[in-house]
Amino acid sequence: MNSSTPMVAAFDFDGTLTWIDTLPFFLIYLAGPIRFLFTITPMIPTLLRFWANPASYDASKRKIVRRFLSGMSAQRAAWAGRRFAERVLPKLIRSNVLSQLQEHLKKGHRCIIISASPELYLTPYAEQLGVQDVIATAFEIDAEGRLSGELAGNNCYGEEKATRLAALLGDRRQYRLTAYGNSPGDIPLLKMADTAYYNGKPFGAAA
After folding, report:
1. Is residue 98 a contact partner of residue 17, using CB atoms and an 8 Å limit?
2. Residues 12-57: pLDDT tens digits?
3. pTM for the complete prediction?
4. CA 162, CA 128: separation in Å to the nearest integer?
5. Domains of the chain (ranges plus CATH)?
6. 31/25 Cα distance (integer angstroms)
7. 26-41 burial, b for 16+ CB within 10 Å, e for fewer?
């Protein structure tokens, strides 16, 4: 690997490119504040278990997705995702990290947004930025064109991030990787990078 090897920059989204977890904001946008509160209140024990034990993240997320999205038309969900990307996400972005991403783009680096958040709104937001590659969580669509309430494949978190990035990029010797993250779920991604940043600091210094 040398200086002419193509550069890839992989950015986690929630807490890295944004200052907060975006999924609750999307669910509020989708359902409206009153329905959101009515729907989420019975799930408070689930959320408390997650906060007490982040290892339960995957199961908790699946329950939340099932509760809010089951039966919704895929067309309506896609429309809401695009509108959310246009109207809400820009208000949640960390300007300094966005500037880093834009600097990579200016240099001709291949940029990738990789996140456990839904591709429903990450893909249209990435399009706004000029980022072609998104690795994110997808929702299952049934035969009638509705969201089943289940995830399509694995939640894009932890080891899944590293696995899916490696599958996308292929031979590790053919690219240099810079990765940006902010949580334990990003550590497998950061470990596979040549240069990595955790909460804005070099990964080795922050780990």
Report:
1. yes
2. 999 999 999 999 999 999 989 898 888 888 878 877 766 666 556 6
3. 0.91
4. 25
5. 7-206 (3.40.50.1000)
6. 10
7. bbbbbbeeeebeeebe
